[in-house]
Amino acid sequence: KKGSETKLVGSPDQFTKSGFILAAIGSAVGLGNMWKFPYITGQYGGAAFFLLFIVCLVAVGLPVLLAELSIGRGGRGNASSSFVKVGGHKAWGGMGLLSVIGAFMIMSFYAVVAGWTFHYAVQAFSGKLFANDDFGGQFSSFISGYTPIIWQAGVLIITGWIVARGISGGIEKFNKVLIPGLLVLLVILMVRALTLPGAEAGVEFFLKPDFSRLTPESALVALGHAFFSLSLGMGAMMTYGSYVDRKQSLGAATLAIGGGDLLYAFIAGLIIFPTTFSFGIDQAQGPTLVFIALPAAFSAMPFGTLFGGLFFILLAIAALTSTVSLIEVPVAYAIERWKMSRNTAVWIIIAGCFLLGLPAALSFGLVPGLTFGGKSFFDWMDFIASNIILPLGGLAVTVFAGYFWKGIGDEAGLTGLWFRVWLFMLRFVAPILVLFVFLHSAGIIKF
Ligand code: PHE
């Protein structure tokens, strides 16, 4: 094992201990926790689904997270070269490159949704959102117009500005302020939600499991979401791992990141379910839940302008701490592979994401013809990145770490029983389950 005396080649910019934990929690906590988690929990089984999600997170997510961090720190390279540097064949670099492309794709449409949250924050604080109570109509006329493009560009510019400042001076600094700030906002909103009349029914839906609600599909959705929520399979954790000090314990970091991700999702659930139940809103309505159902609830509660504004600010912050980690994946690649300066790499990639995100942003009605095969351009990007590339990237990590990299135990700092349990999960449990998710979401197996 190389000691901490090994100097980083060409990149002395790395995270501090706490900075790394907060940045990685920032990557994990995002629209996945605040937007997607509540609506899939609503659709796939409430509390029973939440339990299933926790099992997937602990049994499969954490082992893969530790593997990604180890490969990144062991290789000290980007999401593609790290594989090759820790002794993998070039072909593994090719799998890694797939994740780099996946991160670029996720970033392109994620910035569109992140843009929506900024628009909603402004609308809520200014009171405009509540001036007309046709929230469904407002949402669809907003996403089918051209305003989302302006916000999409705004999100990309802020992200680029942070990432251009580097790891410790940009990404770390920003997460150190925003991640604790996010927790404060979440707790305020949780107290508000839990004190609404009839909140108990929502808490019960979220926390009292009824296993008859589960379907085989629930399990696959829960596992897929555990991956997405921990930012796995896209090279993000691998890239962050490459900036971690050799002396930091990756095992402890893995537990902290997993715990952080779960905590933020838990509080998000304790905001959304009591609120929707209190106002008699259907919590199984899917992706539009936070943009249509919650404004209706906020408009009917005292100080709704304030709480609604805070809620959408919270979504926007959570999204930004994830976009910086997504963009860092192709940025690190471009810096190393094409010897670009950080600044050049950042702005070229930001421009690329804007262009690729444009048809996604416009596919909600403004430009006809962007829907084919039953899916809009936006849905296709989400589908290809989240359902195809992400599981394949995750599979590459588990198989490489479980079977091919002999030195992984040293880098991860695990020995004895824990090491054997971890290796077992990486070798047998994770790849098989991930393969199922992949085959199901690619439509190859059906229930
Ligand atoms: N984990 C983020 C979320 O939950 C999304 C993400 C996926 C970020 C992959 C980086 C890489 O929103």
From TrEMBL:
A Pfam family this chain is assigned to: SNF
CDD domains (alphabetical): SLC6sbd_Tyt1-Like
GO cellular component: membrane
Its membrane topology: Multi-pass membrane protein
Domain of life: Bacteria
UniProt main location, coarse: membrane
Family matches, as InterPro entries: Na/ntran_symport (IPR000175), SNS_sf (IPR037272), YocR/YhdH-like (IPR047218)
Record GO terms (molecular function): symporter activity
Key words, A-Z: Membrane, Symport, Transmembrane, Transmembrane helix, Transport
Membrane-spanning residues: 18-35, 47-71, 92-122, 142-164, 176-199, 219-240, 252-273, 310-333, 345-372, 384-405, 417-439
Family membership noted in the UniProt record: Belongs to the sodium:neurotransmitter symporter (SNF) (TC 2.A.22) family.
Protein's name in the database: Transporter
Species name: Paenibacillus wynnii
